[in-house]
Amino acid sequence: MTRSSRTLRSPFRSLGEVTISFLMIVALLVVGADQARSAGRQLLYSYGTAASDGSSGSRDLFLMDEDGSNVVQLTAEPGDDYNGVWSPDGSRIAFASDRDGDYEIYVMAADGGGVIQITDSPAKDFNPAWSPDGTEIAFRSQRTGNDDIWRIGVDGSGLTQLTTHSGFDATGSTGSWSWITGEIAFSSNRAGNLQDVFVMDADGGNVRQLTNLPGADTAPAWSPDGTKLVFVSDRHGQYDIFAMNADGTGQTRLTTDPGQDVTPSWSHDGTSIAFSSDRDGDFELFVMEIDGTNQTQITFDTVITRWPAWTPPTTPSVAVCPSGALAAWEGDGLADETGSFPLTVYGGATFAGGLLGNAFSVDGSGDYLEV
Hints:
Blueprint: E1 2-5, E2 8-9, H1 22-31, H2 33-38, E3 42-50, E4 57-65, E5 72-73, E6 81-86, E7 92-97, E8 104-109, E9 116-117, E10 125-130, E11 136-141, E12 148-153, E13 160-161, E14 169-171, E15 184-188, E16 196-200, E17 208-209, E18 217-222, E19 228-233, E20 240-245, E21 252-253, E22 261-266, E23 272-277, E24 284-289, E25 296-297, E26 304-310, E27 317-320, E28 326-329, E29 344-346, E30 361-362, E31 367-370
Antiparallel strand pairs: 1-31, 2-30, 3-4, 3-26, 4-5, 6-7, 7-8, 8-9, 10-11, 11-12, 12-13, 14-15, 15-16, 16-17, 18-19, 19-20, 20-21, 22-23, 23-24, 24-25, 27-28, 28-29
């Protein structure tokens, strides 16, 4: 990719839009990282007491800015609410809770209101992951007596079992369903190790093994562009955060602290990874660059703080150029007081006057992306 600087001016007060696939919109979000980051980022997380393995306890969901400020509590029901994950458009949160006596999947609005129970089974349902179009949720369930991966509509319909192997199959802590490729990453002991990372298609087919080492490789989460995965591994004696390419190559250790580093989450602008670590004596949240540098602690509590999940960026508006290239912009698509606004162009476009036909003319400088 090459990035150039130009300015695009619009003589119009409104712009025509067309409908394109949701996956393409998400792709536009990924490459428009500078706009998303400038708008500010927040983290959803769970806070409270829990068992040593983090599987049960008395926790609630909270939201805060990425520097640990402006904390807002979202749930306050008796029981254990944890592992919250955002819908692709940022309007809803799926999470696991035992508020009905056993762990089920719930969905609520981004402000904590309108809670709806999605699953209903005497066995545990947990580790939710949103589909790219926001209509379904994949999750880990013990309803057959074995840990398998299932998917269900957000209205509770269409329950489908995706894995049927006799081994242990589990979705990751956050971001295990790629919003770009549509694939689901999961951990399993089906290859004979404690756990390895696998990837499968959304229908449960085309299963591929990505890691193969003694010990546990678990909690996979996709990068926003679908080209990499971050995961947790104990291959060096304690749980550390690793990253690798989507085909399993290039496995790289990102954390080396003697403590336990778990539940990684890749920011949607692709620049940061949040994770939980007990390196200060109890589990707190940390943020680092995607190469493992600049590890910064952002919570300082005396109880367990885990399961971070980044808020998605604002969804841009989209238009199609006559050439077939795509343009995206933030906000309402109206020019500012100077008559100009930033525009991003994708899909093999060349920079030339009249690129967007009647929608835009070119005369100045602003950011656009040439692919």
